[in-house]
Amino acid sequence: MKRKKNLGLLFFVITTFVLSSILLGTQNIPTPEEFFGFRMGDDGRLARWDKIVEYFDILDKRSDRIEVRCLGKTTLGNPFILAIFSSPENLKNLEMYREMNKKIADPRGLSEKEVERLIQKARYVSVQTYSLHATEVGGTQCTPELAYELVTSDDPVIKMILENTIFLMFPCFNPDGEIMVTDWYYKYKGTKYDNTRLPYLYHFYTGHDNNRDAYQLTQKESQYFAKIVYRDWIPQSYVDHHHFGSSGARFYIPPYYDPIHPNVIPLIWREHQLYGSHMAIALESKGKSGFETGAPFTGWWQASFHMATNYHNIAGMLTESASCDWADPVYILPDQLSGTRGRPEYKPQMTMPRLWEGGWWRLRDIVEQQIIASKAVLELGARYRETLLRNMIRKAEENIQKGEREAPYAFIIPRNQHDFLTAVKLVKIFQMNGVEIHRLDRSYRMGWREFSEGSFVILCSQPMRSFIVSYLEQVNYPDNYWTRSHVSGQPLHPYDLAGYSVSEHMGVEAIPINRPICNISLTRVVDDVKTPEGRIIGTGGNVYLLEHRFNDSFIALNRLLSAEDVDIYWTEEGFNYQDRYMPCGTMIIQGGSNLRQKIQELARRLGLSFYSIDEDLNVKKVKLKKPRLGVYRRYAGGSMDAGWTHWLLQEFEFPVSILHNKDIKDNRFVDRYDVVIIPSDSYRRIVIGDSSRKVPPEYRGGIGDGGIKNLRDFVKKGGTLICLNISYDFAQKVFNLPLRNAVSNVDSKEFFCPGSTLKISIDISHPIGYGMEPHGLALFRNSPVLDVWAGEFKDGVSIPVRYHEENILKSGWLIGEKYLSNRPAVVVFRVGGGKVILLGFPVQHRAQTHGTFKLLFNSIYYGAFEK
Question: Are the C-beta atoms of residues 241 and 373 closer than 8 Å to each other?
């Protein structure tokens, strides 16, 4: 009896100790309000990223329900973190659950018994990201409060969530921008510049376009995300939390609006409806109003993270909160509330049955609704864990079966194509997206085409078929009931582009195989695809030839020109070397005694092959020089086209200076540069800028009359001005050029071409066309249709690139082909001693259109070598 009493006492002591420890651990975790000194979303208050990281670090140290990982540094060197929430037991076995989840995403080779075992043991995985767009502050501001609830609450629903789910939270998708916005907000808070918008891009290179990098994955932040979501985990759902305007609904939740992309597995669209309904009920239960589903965001586009994930069999969704003035409230009159695409007026309808009646709208409202939506996704995943895991297997199996039974059965990326090094980059992109890659072990013939050993093969009989087909196929955007105004019949602009064929944009051959593949010898590429090593061909002297057809030849060119003892020429005529024809633009490299060592290193690192020859060739050539290059970056919110251009030029190692308004207005500007690039922008934005008195003086205005004068003097004295896409209008006005946009006053029912790839003809004997093929593809987006007449420039105009005469559309949507027929796409004007080059479509669009990069790169050197 005494022994039982002692055991009872021991049990009481242990229980008391455990409960005290739990209670003490909870008490040691400060609430967000205690840590930050204010409630998340309070008027006039924003938490800065470094403090948010510090708070998550405290949670990581003091709670066993969270694991925080730093995935690396951002573009500007700030920590990029991932917070993983689950039960303590689940977190101890995280690697086991990750492997289970990957098998569920790719069930090939699993027996029914193994599948059932996985369904019973695996956990539902949700990924959610916040404040990808840094001015949309509510997302990141809600995460400390959401995190605190998940690690401290004893609510039965929270416990169920932790037991059944693994929640991968990216508290901020754009930490650099979060810091910029927070610092700017506090710097001018309470001054006459209060709430003025950020004058520069809130992602250093991409600004708002960081949400257009979901598949090409150029930026560091995108790559961190892709590794976790596309390769390491492959979650069942992904939600990206955003803001939008304040004149309509208070909150957009899934599903999307028509049209929907047919390559997405239909079960995903049904899941969107399920998630959206659960979010809606959760919002209703909390007394929220003005939230809508199904409008205005369409289900046919591919550039954003929340859309791209759907092609990975992940239910990729979006929420959009109505904005306030960052952390300051706004008052919305009922009269200011309006309709949108899919909801023509501000009245109740199925997509939004409960209206918001107007009044004050605060950051706290945004924080609360994003927390409710985030938890609703987790609760749904916990309650329907087995169903959603089975769905993941069904989606993968449907893709695999379609790949086995329907064309295309595969895409082959030939080894013997114009710029194989860029083709390797395409394969790397697909591999980063989780696509399985194979390589030909020996040559393979299909029809008239023979594919050599080393060509890449992407089989469609894999879980990623939706992604493969959607990003490689030639596509026609639908012209139907959903894409025309129901009132006027005007075509409705697609959300972003009408076509996203990566191969078309990159200028890479990806050949669809439309019949079953037989007798093919393949090896799966297990490791990351490597750039093949180049070599030196021949044993000649200290003179080398380099072909112009590779984009990466410009990296070699820029590196070699940085060496003082190296001379480089472009040939101005084609010639035969041994058994090979070398076209115009072939590079001749000669220099000092250590040139061979430099060439060997470039060949090894870049994959380029150089030809060693005995002596200089007797061909017509022009000597290149290192260009003094400037790129204009305006204020007034910043130019994304300028940011992308800056990033691209740095990637290819061009020596580039950034020019702001004051630099171009400086009288010393004229003699400092050989080439200046004006990114795609309107005349008004460039010349006038933002002249509001709400803008601090140092960011006010544009280049003004002084800048215009300097640019005129710069060109007349021998400089080259390159104007991209819509900045043609700036060049026309400044230099009185004889051209106009032939469709500027044409109704959209007559001419419409929203983000489509069009066929172009290229003069490969013109320096701007060097290294290109005679026929290529141009991305036409918000572009002019140039109409040029001779006038006083009749002897000084050249047109290196034109649109085809007919059958111009490759992918996307084109109404009114006749307006483009044989029209100029690139025009060069001689002005005084210099040149104005108009690249009349976005040749470097978002650093994605590799197929036309050379038109920009050639223009830069063409502009420098004839000064």
Answer: yes
Residues 375-398, mean pLDDT to the nearest whole number? 98
Whether residue 284 is predicted with pLDDT greater than 80 in this model: the reply is yes
Which two three-digit tokens encode residue 575? 């010639």
- Residue 549 near residue 468 (C-beta atoms within 8 A): no
Least Cα distance to 305 among 31, 530, 554, 496 occurs for: 496
Average pLDDT for the chain: 95
Answer whether residue 17 is part of any domain: no
Q: Which phi and psi (to 5°) does residue 164 adopt?
A: -105, -10
pLDDT score of 795 more than 90: no
Q: What residues contact 397, with CB distance under 8 A and at least 6 apart?
A: 107
Decide which of 564, 593, 623 is a domain's last residue. Answer: 623
Cα–Cα distance measured from residue 93 to residue 353, given in angstroms and rounded to the nearest whole number: 44
Q: Domain count for the chain, please give it.
A: 4
Peptide bond into 199 cis (omega under 30): no
Task: Decide if 322 contacts 249 (C-beta within 8 A).
Answer: yes
For CA atoms 606, 611, 616, 618, give the dihedral sign: negative
Backbone angles phi, psi at 219, to 5 degrees: -95, 155
Q: What is the pLDDT of residue 13?
A: 44
Contact 125, 165 (CB under 8 A): yes
* Token code pair at residue 587: 């590079």
Q: What is the pLDDT of residue 18?
A: 45
* Integer angstrom CA distances of residue 289 from 157, 292, 827: 23, 9, 54
Per residue in 6-17, pLDDT (tens digit) is: 545 544 444 444
Give the pLDDT score at 754. 97
The residue out of 597, 623, 649 marking a domain boundary is: 623
- Measured over the CA atoms of residue 764, residue 768, residue 770 and residue 776, the dihedral's sign is negative
What are the beta bridge partners of residue 631? 658, 677
CB 430 within 8 A of CB 458: yes
Q: 843 lies in a domain?
A: yes
Residue 9 inside a domain? The answer is no
Express each pLDDT in 557-610 by its tens digit: 999 999 888 999 999 999 998 889 999 999 999 987 799 999 999 999 999 999
